[in-house]
Write a structure and sequence with these properties.
The protein is α+β, with helices and mostly antiparallel strands. The protein has one domain (about 20-110): Thrombin, subunit H, CATH 2.40.10. Helix content is about 20%, strand content about 40%. The chain is built from 2 helices and 7 strands. It has helices at about 1-15, 55-60, and strands spanning about 20-30, 40, 45-55, 70-80, 80-85, 95-100, 105-110. Strands 1, 2, 3, 4, 5, 6 and 7 form a 7-stranded antiparallel β-sheet that branches. The protein is globular and about 45 Å long. Keywords: Signal.
């Protein structure tokens, strides 16, 4: 019984030790329209993103009040030390997930193999 409980605990712990993944996603940002137009989506960008939960992101950045521990975050590194951190307000990603970056811009993140 002790071995079973220890094995179950180890399995549970291993799920949270490496709580992020790197995957190819399609992202778009919302372009705000002027008074005569409605908001629309930018072109899609096929990028490699780090999908990470808020608790782990807080630990990695040592900012324990910056991220919601229950949310998933999509982190995209653009080069030149620039990154976009998108809060999905959700504990998981779906086919099309919306979120906001730290400047308030709305993004759509997609797992779809098609990126337009």
């Amino acid at each position: 019984m002790k071995k079973f409980v220890f094995g179950l605990f180890t399995l549970f712990l291993s799920m949270y030790v490496n709580a992020y993944e790197v995957k190819d996603v399609c992202i778009k940002y919302q372009v705000k329209g002027n008074a005569d137009t409605i908001p629309h989506w930018s072109q899609g960008y096929k990028v490699q993103a780090n999908i990470i939960d808020g608790q782990e992101l807080s630990q990695k950045t040592r900012c324990y009040t910056c991220y919601d521990p229950l949310d998933k975050y999509v982190v995209v590194f653009w080069g030149d030390g620039q990154a976009t951190v998108i809060d999905t307000d959700s504990p998981f990603l779906s086919l099309y997930t919306e979120g906001r970056d730290q400047q308030g811009r709305i993004w759509e993140v997609s797992d779809s193999p098609v990126c337009m």
